Amino acid sequence: MNLFDVYPLFDITPVKAQGAYVWDENGKRYLDLYGGHAVISIGHSHPHYVKRIARQLYDIGFYSNSVKMPLQQELAEKLGALSGYHDYSLFLCNSGAEANENALKLASFHTGRKKVIAFKGAFHGRTSAAVAATDDPKIQAPINETDNIIFLPLNDLNAFANALNEHGQELAAVIVEGIQGVGGVHMPEATFLKAVSAGCEKVGALLILDEVQSGFGRSGKFFAHQHTDVKPHLITMAKGMGNGFPVAGVLISPAIEAKHGMLGTTFGGNYLACVAALAVLEVMEQENLTENAKNIGNWIMDVLRHMPGVKDVRGKGLMIGVELNQPCAGIRKQLLEEYGIFTGSSSDKNTLRLLPPLNIGARESKVFLEAFESILLKAELAAV
Ligand code: PMP
Asked: With a cut of 0.95, is the ipTM above it?
């Protein structure tokens, strides 16, 4: 049987990983600045994480959601304490798409409405409502087509005000990424987010912050929108939450009535998922990873800004987009093949993404910066 062809693959077979490093079947070591697409938050196979999950599996790995699970409450409390959202409630599920699907559904339940404002370049996942709110017709099947989604340019206050005038009374939600990831690392401006939040309040729509990629400390705050004082009604998270274990969640404002039975999913909040997420939070706290993401990330961005051929450096903390004066595919290939460094692409062909583990140090960062600069210098010389 053939495997379904999901993604273009790196021609590498990782068999072992530790911290920011991955080894292939031939023992070659790679520096991982991609983190399995922003998933690896506390580093590969962190010893505390491995122990927590292994011990839990010895005791009990799974029972259905029909029993009491104090681990879920423990996770909700820890997440509340570290994120500052202790008055919100937590719905646990398994992926970023599922979290957004449920957030959109809750917004529709709550308002009784069905229109949603989303943004150009947005990626929210591949399930029906999430993919409909994703700005990529290539991944929308006919069954996902709907005229309920209005796509607006990010950070365009006039376009937002006009859309609110036209559709405000039918609007269930506005969904926006804390930092737009797949689209090429674009920040919603603080003034824009504030206006969006106020607009939602005015027309009775809910503000959904998709923190699937930008959350869990990556931006240098627990959630990227916390660089502003905006408080969304719903916050979705996944990726870094489980450091590789599939676990996701929706934080729900106390103002939203989420009735029993509205949401559900078999694997959501299972014992292993809860301990994986708890272990991530414990390591984030013990190792001060949000602070590290801020400090190391700012330093990396400053250095990148002075490199030849770099047009723009965007992002916050360790969610970094480097826009080059040329397509980045060849440069990423060289980084991988000549220097053993994984980096990420984006839907903008000139923008390369860095999404390393949050405990990456100055030493690993320097290895990358030197390699990157030398490739860029060579490319510049070749172009003369
Ligand atoms: N939202 C954002 C911002 C994402 O970057 C992604 C994944 N790239 C998703 C949602 C979907 O997450 P998942 O693949 O876990 O469904």
From this structure: yes
